[in-house]
Amino acid sequence: MAELVDALGLGSSVLATWRFKSSYRHYISITMDSKWYKPDPRTFNSFNVFGRTIYHAYNCLTEEDIKGLREEIDDELKNSLDNKDGYLQATNELYRRRLKNDKCWKNFFKMVKDHLYRYADITNDPSIKQLKVHSYWAKRVSDVSEYEYYSQLYASYGNTHFHEGFELGVVYYLENPSRIFGTLIEDSGREFIIPGDENSMIIHHSNVNHEAVLPPPKLSKDYPRTVIVVDFKRIEDERY
Description:
By secondary structure, the protein is α+β, with helices and mostly antiparallel strands. The chain is 23% helix and 27% strand. The protein has one domain (2-233): q2cbj1_9rhob like domain (Jelly Rolls, Sandwich). The longest helix is centred in the middle third of the chain and has 21 residues, at 102-122. The two termini are 19 Å apart. The model is unreliable at 14-32 (pLDDT under 50).
């Protein structure tokens, strides 16, 4: 997996051996019947949240790529011995995975790169195009108890975390029972929830407090929330 990211010019396989492990959690999701879950017709949108530009892209991947990513993540969570982060399922060793479907991952990272470059143009900051992928992982909430959810996973004030030393982060919503289960941004006591439309992705400042807005057990048991997270860092010397 790390070699694939290298080949796209997004980062170093050495860097990708590290993954942020929050003291709280991240997330993950799936596709509902179209008669219930209608995709957003927009291609992308950008807006200001607490003085920073947030970018939201929609309808990011084809059904074929979505199916491939789900199968890859299902297989990794099933076979990896290191597949938990607290109460959530997590692909902690994704960077060293021997891929069964490299095409869907190539398309995923190419899509991320394209939107990152567009974000650089929107913010008039060409240096963003020099950022490199430092880490990437998937997280899923599916089979948790009521106690686990309300004691640790429920989105509440003060339960946020941040990724120290990082510039930008991507959250791609692979599966999600509803767009209301997105990502909460918190800054100086102010809160803002970005919707988590299935097959959409956001670019946000991962060094700012945030947390996943996770569905309750009655929903996630039958329809998990699965996300793929990518962290970017400004690397002056890729040997480190």
